[in-house]
Structure formats: C-alpha cells, structure tokens
Amino acid sequence: MNNLKEVTSNLYSKGHTQRVQDKKVTSTLWKGINTLGKGINKRGSHVGFMLSFVIFITFLIFMYIIINPAIKTKSNKELSLDHLEKEIKKKVSDNLITVAITGNASDNRIKCLTINNSNLNLNRLNYTVNYLGDLIPVNLSGDELRLAWYDHTRNLFKINYANESFKIQEASVINCSKAKVEYVKKDDYVFETKIIKLIQDYSIDYDSLKANLDIAPSDEFSFSFTYNNQTTIGTGQKNVSISGSGRKFSVHYINQLANINQGVMTINIW
C-alpha cells in the first residue's frame, strides 16, 4: 500500500514538472514568434521607406529631364539678350562733348560771342548751339565759331560737339567778343540718327548686320525704339517664333537739336 502511494506521488510530481516545462517551452516559443514578427515588420518598414525614396528620386530625375531643356533655353536666350543689348548700345552710342560759355553781359554793344574750336581740339567735330532747347544762330569762320547774342539776359550757352549730323541755324553776326569757357564735359549718349541708321541697315542687309552684331546663326532678332512722345520706330520681325524672348530698357538719347530726352529700346530674339 505504501509502495502504491509512493508510485502515485512520483507520477504526479513528474507530470506536474512536465506541464511546467511544457508551459515554459510554449512561452519561450511564442516569445520567439513575436520577436520574429517584429523583426519582419521592421524590415518591411525599412523596405517600404527605401522603395518610397527610390520612387521620389526617380520622379525628381524625370522632372529634371522634362524641365531642364526649357530652363536651358531660357538661360541661353537671356544670355543672347544681354549680348544683343550690349552690341546695339555700342552701335547707337557716341561721345557728346559740351562746352559751356558766357560773355560780358554788361556791354550791350556786343552782339556775338566767339570760341576757337581748334584750341579745344574740337574742330573736326560737328556742332550745334542751343539755349534751353532753342537753337542759337551761328556762323563759322575758319576755326572760329561765332554765336549770335542779342538777348543779354541769356548768358550761358552750351555748344554741343559730336561726330553727328546736327541741325544748326546759320546767321551773319557782327560786333563779336571772345567768350569765356566755363566748363567742358564729355558724356556717352544714344543718338537718334544712329538708331535710324541701324534700322535702315537692318532693312537693307539683315544678314550682314546680324553677323556684325555677332548674333548666333541659330538666332534671329529685331528691335524698336520709342521716343519720349510715344512715337515708335523699328525693324519689324523676320521669321517670328513663339519661343522668343524680349526686353525693354530706358536710354537717354540726343536728338538732332542736341536736346537730351528719354526713350525706350525694345529688343527681341528667338
């Protein structure tokens, strides 16, 4: 009887121990499965992130391929416009030398003022004289320029010299006196007559002008000029393309009376 109890007790103890061990194994197995699942999830998230990154980079490359030619074209056109603006300004600009003179206003017998052009090294340039925009009658005798001076309340005259075709008003003058030179200055201006000539050159021989301006063979160009009174003169356009670019810029220009005005130059390239 005692032996039977001992055997039963031993069997129960072994079974209980086995159940405890089985629970430990089962618990350990589930922990492993959970750990493995988390690892898989982490790897899945990493793969998803990498895939999204690759797609994003591919999209950027695609957009660059599509947009870059347009950006390049615009950039090239801007450089071409820079070049065209620079070359046209050179063609239509020149020096204007202004000599300001005064006379002895207290002597009413003096009816003209004189200045020697050669003394100022200006005898090879054309000239015109105005007072606040009004032409003053002049007479040239050798290198001596004579200005009519009838109104002594006007006592600061500007003689403008340039390699330019100015309008002048000629008159015979007497009772002259040597003028006093107050100042001499030189400035760079756009000249109306040079703009007109450039438009004529464009119409007469476009290809030669294009080569002279060093315009790229693949480009075409045109330009126009708007006076301060809003009158516009220009070249028109040849073989116009929708992919062209344009630019406007203000200039101070000298008209044929040597008056300084402001106008607008428009250039186009395509």
Key descriptive features of the protein:
alpha+beta, 270 residues, five-stranded mixed β-sheet, 3 domains, elongated, single chain, nine-stranded mixed β-sheet
Task: Explain what this protein looks like in three dimensions.
This protein is an alpha+beta fold and 270 residues long. The protein has three domains: 1-59; 81-93 and 192-269, no CATH class; 94-189, no CATH class. It has helices spanning 2-92, 192-204, 206-212; strands at 93-102, 112-116, 126-131, 134-135, 137-141, 144-148, 157-162, 169-170, 176-178, 180-191, 221-226, 232-234, 245-254, 260-269. The strands form two sheets. The chain has a nine-stranded mixed beta sheet with strand order 4-3-7-1-10-13-14-11-12. Strand 11 (221-226) and strand 12 (232-234) form a beta hairpin. The N and C termini lie far apart (118 Å).
How many strands appear in the DSSP assignment? 14
What is the topology, as strand order, of the major beta sheet?
4-3-7-1-10-13-14-11-12
The portion of residues assigned to helices is 40-55%
The total tally of domains equals: 3
Order of helices and strands: HEEEEEEEEEEHHEEEE
The amount of beta strand, in percent, is 25-35%
> How would you characterize the largest beta sheet?
9 strands, mixed
Class inferred from helices and paired strands: alpha+beta
N- to C-terminal distance: 118 Å
Return residue spans where pLDDT drops below 50 for at least 5 consecutive residues: 1-18
Q: How many helices in DSSP terms?
A: 3
Query: How much is the radius of gyration in Å?
Result: 45 Å
Q: Outline, from the CA principal axes?
A: elongated
Mean pLDDT: 81
